[in-house]
Amino acid sequence: MKLRLIGAILVGAAVAAWACKGDPTADLRNGAAALSVTPSIVVVDPGTVVAVTIEVQDAQLNPLVGDVTASTSDATLATVEVDASRHFPDASTHAFNVTAVGEDGGQPRITFSTGSVDTALVVNLNPVEFNGTISSATPKGGSIITISSTSVLKLDEVTGVTFGGTAGTIASQSKNALAVVVPFSSAGKPKLASVYTTYMGSDFTFTLPSASSVTQTGDFWDGDSTAATAPALVMPDVATKGSVQPMITNLYAGDNHTACPEPTAQGPCMYYGFALTDTATLTFATNWDGSPADSTRIVTFACVSPFSAVTCSAAAFEAADTVTKKRPKSVKFKFPSGNHLFIIERRNTAATTPGPTTPPKNVRVTITRN
């Protein structure tokens, strides 16, 4: 009997001591210590509405009653508002809607707060247009324009740029700029293939139309209808082997076939000058469009300048590709120092069935220092 009494006294004393000491986790439940956001990161297209839930928690991550406010880092990229259609009876969970707005990419943050505690939802926007600067809205066909990157849209992975559906030629590129040869093309918004964002990296690329239109206006190569007025080519760095320079020209609109190196050619012929201060081996590779492209027979020549029927004839060409019938044409020659001409001639157009044949709108040349 005494033993039982003593045991009861000891148990009672232990309980009393624990009660006096208090709940050891009580300090962890004195107010909000965390916010749980679901989802915490999203990748979305503009116009998408994301349903978000926020739960107020104590330090032990137990639900806790509390109010929550929300704000956006940039309302032009994403907005946030309370979702009154979703209700949670425990008063610790709150509903919001986040709407993606920006069309040019971005990574806005939506911050949720209760008292001094906050957390963020990261919104990764899929861009749907490119808003970088274009150096000219009315460039000449054959000229080179510069397309600049933005703070979040980068260009060193771009694989092509089209103007009104017609491909331009990339002359050079870096993360922050593209130099592009403008084709003879319809007006429209240039489209860039394989743009990437800084926040998702180059593993995720986008084909994006520009936010602004470009209208090809005029011809960079005015004067190419005669040898006497031949415009000067933009040349690669002739001191560096492997350097490349692209160009785009078009067929001269008039009839100058009587001035062509081959008197029987259909014409037209286009003449371009270049000067060398030292010996250099150069390749001129020429391709063209049209429909069907192979129905147009184009041949290319290089001659000493100034032009004459004697020095630029079948017996005196520096170099020529008059035999190959398929595209591309290629002229390769070790040119001496001095003045030279590069000549593009339409020899003839084959009949096609069904017709008609559409002549080339763009003749593309790549000049390589070998």
Describe the structure concisely.
By secondary structure, the chain is mainly β. Helices cover 5% and strands 41% of the residues. The N and C termini lie far apart (112 Å).
Characterization of the model:
This protein is mainly beta. The protein has three domains: 29-125, Sandwich (Immunoglobulin-like), CATH 2.60.40.10; 144-209, no CATH class; 244-369, Jelly Rolls (Sandwich), CATH 2.60.120.380. 5% of the residues lie in helices and 41% in strands. The strands form six sheets. Strands 10, 11, 12, 15 and 16 form a five-stranded antiparallel beta sheet that branches. A four-stranded antiparallel beta sheet has the order 1-3-6-5, with no helix packed on it. Strands 2-8-7-4 form a four-stranded mixed beta sheet, with no helix packed on it. It is elongated. Residues 1-23 have low confidence and may be disordered.
> How does the major sheet shape up?
5 strands, antiparallel
The CATH architecture of the largest domain: Sandwich
H/E series, N to C?
HEEEEEEEEEEEEEEEEEEEEEEEE
Structural class: mainly beta
| Total individual domains | 3
Low-confidence runs of at least 5 consecutive residues: 1-23
Strand content: 35-45%
Total helical elements: 1
pLDDT averaged residue by residue: 91
Alpha-carbon distance between the two ends: 112 Å
Topology:
Blueprint: H1 2-21, E1 34-38, E2 41-44, E3 49-57, E4 69-72, E5 78-82, E6 93-100, E7 109-114, E8 117-125, E9 144-148, E10 153-154, E11 160-163, E12 166-167, E13 169-173, E14 177-181, E15 191-197, E16 201-209, E17 244-249, E18 269-276, E19 280-288, E20 296-304, E21 319-321, E22 329-335, E23 338-349, E24 363-369
Parallel strand pairs: 2-8
Antiparallel strand pairs: 1-3, 3-6, 4-7, 5-6, 7-8, 9-14, 10-15, 11-12, 11-15, 13-14, 15-16, 17-24, 18-23, 19-22, 19-24, 20-21, 20-23
